[in-house]
Amino acid sequence: MVTGEGGRHSSWPRESGVVLLAVALALLVPAIGAWMISARSGATHGNGAALEQRGRIDSSVRVQVHLFYSSACPSCEIARLQVARLVALRPQVSVVEHDVVFPANQVLLRAFCYAAGVPADSGRTVPAVFLGQRYLASRDITLEHLLRLVDGRDLQGAPLDVGDDEIGAAEGALRREGSMLTVAIVAAAGFIDGINPCAFAILVFLVSYLTFAGKNRFQILTTGVSFAGGVFATYVAAGFGLLRVMHASRGMPFVHRAVYLAAAVMCFALAAATMYDLLQMRSGSPSNVKLRLPPRFTKLAHAAIRHAVSSPRLAWAAMLTGAVVATTEFVCTGQVYLPTIAYMVQAGADSGRPAAMLILYNLAFIMPMLCVVTLAYLGTTSGRLAAFTRRHAATVKAAIALVLVCLGSYLSLEFLRMLGLVT
Q1: Could you tell me which of 45, 179, 178, 49 has the C-alpha nearest to residue 108?
Q2: How far apart are CA 335 and CA 156, in angstroms?
Q3: How far is CA 24 from the centre of its chain?
Q4: Is the CB of residue 66 less than 8 Å from the CB of residue 55?
Q5: CB 118 within 8 A of CB 135
Q6: H runs (alpha helix) in 74-136
Q7: Residue 363 has pLDDT above 90, yes or no
Q8: Does this model's pTM top 0.90?
């Protein structure tokens, strides 16, 4: 049993098992959910080879149709029905479907647009049909129109030539588009989440307790860095699980739309609650704020820190404590993290980009921690750090509310695009 402040016995040994179980569940539940969703979506989209082929044309077929669609788009289902009716009426037509939830098919759609001379903006919209040298989008995909094109002699010419040049140009364009904006948004969201009063208060307590325990400045530095490393590893692991769930859900249209709608509603609700907290702080009533770490979780985090500081292996204990604290404070800091992950998935142009954005977010998230630890190493007292936190808490709340409104607006727009209400 470890003795805590005032000679009382800490509850850390008794509660550590519960906390470690919570950590394990936080990491395993997203992975299990992703596996279950992947199993179902894999049955729906098992024709991956056909979906990601690079536009090669079968010369033995008189007319070949390439249909680009999204499984989360209702208007795309109408287009698929029209094309299916065309095939039933004209047996000489062969159809290759490309679901753009797969990054390779996003590239292929843009490459087809280049080959057909279609404006670049059209390369981002579905449904889209390429029939010989002709291109049809959205409401133009009707059975009557398709029949006129198939029965017309203008489709007897050479099919579209989609080769490595078009594929390379499409990959480069998709990689460049919005990359800097996405990086800026993700980094800003991570940094603002990192100065969230929930996370900042725990770190100030860590520095304060290290000083109280008589640790020297170098020990404060190494312990703080190890603590930040534990937080980083835990958030990245949980984030990758959530990314996997978000990617897998794209194969289930109803679930995918529901996730984005829920994320958008959550953003606006949390933004409203954050603005309420801001008004309470401005009016001199900080005790009335709604979005804060529950007292029980705060006590648990403090107990974990006291246990780590008393450990002979301080750096390793601090890293484990960082993982535990990251789990307990996720109820507070997760309000920005979860919507940002949804944004990463939708904004990612290729399969590796959301993962890179996740790393960037969490690096930005721990930057304030590292700054605080560095200031403590240079001699700044925990009292001055706490005073800084209180003085700027309202400003941080305003910044968090702004980030939540921006993310909510983006996710709402994406939800409307899924419904085909906007392009």
Answers
A1: 49
A2: 56
A3: 21
A4: yes
A5: yes
A6: 74-89, 103-116
A7: yes
A8: no
